[in-house]
Queue: 2 jobs
Job 1
Amino acid sequence: MSTRLFEQTTNSNPDPSYRIAFGKAAVNTLNMTFTNFFAFLRVQLGASESAKGVLQLATQTEVNTGTDDTKAVTPLKLANANTGVRQKVIDIGDWNMDTTATPAGIAHGLDWTKIRGINVLIRTDAIGFPRAVPLLAQDSSPNAIFFNETVVVLTRQTGGVFDEVSYSTTFYNRGWIIIDYIP
């Protein structure tokens, strides 16, 4: 004889009762309404960091505010969360800085109106500690970093610190562009 999980009883109440069978547990059956059953599940089978259980998904608003520690977050809602400034790191690629003052623009793939800052780290040929490029102006000034709707453009100063043989090899990534942006 098999036991069905749900079995409707002959209750004349407008909210139908169901007999819920839990196999050979200490309590063989419970007679309750659906409302009570789901309340029972939330209390008895609630999940925590140390126990498996039933969890409710957070709404986008709850994810954005970040104050409810009892609900789960999906990857999509996390990605859509307005959580402030984010960073994107882009490889500069090959650049012989000794002979080329300005490489081709490097695509950033962002909505340029949401960019809040750009930093650049340049590596020497000895792959030593990277040097930060100071942002002097967002135009074509020496050692400038500027961007438009699609690319970041780097320019090194002729006769400056990056215009020498220590920055001439092209077999590896010259450094990184770090973009601060809002989602």
Note: Residues 17-29, 136-140 have pLDDT under 50 and may be disordered.
Job 2
Amino acid sequence: MSRRAWAIMAVRIDVTPRTRDRGRELPRDEIPVAPPGPRLPLPNGRAACVSTDYLPFVSAGAPRTVQRGTRWQRVALWFVICWFFFGGLAHFALTDLEARIVPPQIPDPRDIVLLTGILELAGAFGLMLPWTRRAAGWGLFLLTIAVTPANIYMIKIHDQFDIPVWLLWLRLPLQVVLLWLIVWGSRWRAARRGY
């Protein structure tokens, strides 16, 4: 077997959280990102390195332990997942009600409601998977902005609904909070790596 094949086979990464590391207690959210033991040289003189970029909130290039994300970020992420999951289901359960708030300039309101319901469900499931989380976050961010005209139109025709007008107005600033939770919870911006 060639020297390169042995080097590739010998490289492994330990991504299980450790409770103790060199006598100091590690928080449960920390994962050692460097492979244990010395790095093996490859035939071209470079050290073997395994990428863990696909893991959520892990930066593989950092020589130290990296935070995976705070507990509140995970709470925000799961809030966003639940928001869009149940909101997506509502698009199918209450299709006629949702179609009434689509502005009249948009054709086929029923189809638009069903399409946005599918996109919301896909985004919610995409946020659950680490390798699709960033794309799902971008998609849900853009979708939230895209449905804002329907929320504004609902304020204009508020007399057709049994919802207080102040609650409809309150939904607009809450939508900005939702956008921030999507960004923060899905961690779009990767942490700068200290190579």
Note: The two ends are 32 Å apart (CA to CA).
